[in-house]
Design brief:
The protein has a domain of about 210 residues: NAD(P)-binding Rossmann-like Domain (Rossmann fold), CATH 3.40.50. It is built from eleven helices and 14 strands. The relative contact order is 0.14.
Length: about 325
């Protein structure tokens, strides 16, 4: 088997590449000239240099692979148009390349996001519920999902919707762990937000199960860990993993909004380096529940998360220490 991974130089993509290689699968990585290849250095992979706007480069990348894992995308952008360029238009172009130049039995696995479905209310979301994204990021991912589902009428394709992902190499979770390591856990607002989470190793397991299952064609799967968590509990798990005591500080929403407004302004001035917190991200942060159910993935793919929250966060913290990040 030969696989193409987009976003292979990033957090999720590089972990996926590692597991594919461990299973003896030949891996081609679609990378840009500006990609940081630190996680791919010295690995036995083929680098396919290209761009999602360059259809010829996409044609070359997909022409000789059995499965395309489309992980690349933008979680931060300076505008709504930026999210749609990186998430919807890039996916549409890649699908067109697969349709025209990929082998007929090629499979396409799209890594979407819980944000495409929107927040939950009460019970965890299931895949049969109507998506209602609240942010431009979520809307762009949903548009890409619909393109993939249309493609799946002719070719094999499946969609993975993870919630927040954490684990080795994740820089966003690292900011939280670093703060707690320094003695401070900051929680926005006073609402007790409930979230589903998934460790990157469990997510990779779910992705590969979907790639191998014939019944996954045209299906959407939430791949998440067990349980529903609030940020105080998450902070406690991190503190125990680090052996640190810390102060928990609730930041009022008006101050969070002020910071998000500043982030949006900075992103407009420096669109190539958008900030993590902006007004679009705030729409997601303000929701009280981001919960999803992994029952379909269990029933149809045989998915079973291996890491509970405490074990997963301890694994992440240990990796950050070993890598010299802490």
């Amino acid at each position: 088997m030969r696989a193409l991974v987009t976003g292979a130089s990033g957090f999720i993509g590089s972990n996926l590449v590692d597991q594919l290689l461990a299973e003896g699968i030949a891996v081609k990585c679609l990378v840009r000239g500006s990609s940081n290849l630190a996680w791919l250095k010295d690995l036995p992979v083929t680098l396919a240099h290209g761009d999602f706007r360059d259809l010829d480069s996409l044609a070359r990348a997909v022409s000789d692979v059995d499965c395309v894992f489309h992980v690349a995308g933008a979680t931060r952008a300076s505008s709504r148009a930026g999210y749609f360029r990186a998430n919807f238009e890039a996916t549409r172009n890649l699908l067109r390349a697969c349709e025209k130049h990929g082998p007929k039995d090629q499979k396409f696995i799209f890594i979407s996001s819980l944000a495409a479905a929107g927040p939950s209310s009460g019970a965890p979301l299931t895949e049969d519920q109507e998506p209602r994204p609240v942010s431009a990021y979520g809307a762009s991912k949903l548009a890409a999902e619909r393109a993939v589902l249309e493609f799946s009428r002719q070719r094999a394709a499946a969609i993975i919707r993870p919630p927040a992902v954490y684990g080795p190499r994740d820089r966003d979770t690292f900011l939280l762990i670093k703060s707690i390591n320094r003695g401070l856990h900051v929680i926005p607002g006073r609402d007790v937000q409930k979230v589903s989470l998934v460790h990157v190793h469990d997510l990779v397991t779910g992705i590969l199960l979907a790639a191998a299952a014939e019944k996954s064609r045209g299906r959407v799967y939430y791949v998440c860990g067990e349980g529903h968590h609030d940020w105080r509990t998450i902070g406690d798990c991190i503190g125990k993993a680090l052996g640190r005591r810390f102060l928990t500080l609730n930041i009022p929403w008006w101050l969070v909004r002020l910071a998000a407004t500043g982030g949006s302004l900075v992103s407009r001035v420096t669109p190539s380096s958008p900030t993590l917190l902006n007004l679009d991200k705030l729409r997601d942060i303000r929701q009280t529940q981001w919960l999803c159910s992994n029952e379909r993935a269990k029933a149809e793919l045989g998915f079973q998360p291996a890491l509970d929250l405490a074990t997963g966060l301890a694994d992440a913290a240990a990796w950050y220490k070993k890598a010299g990040w802490l």
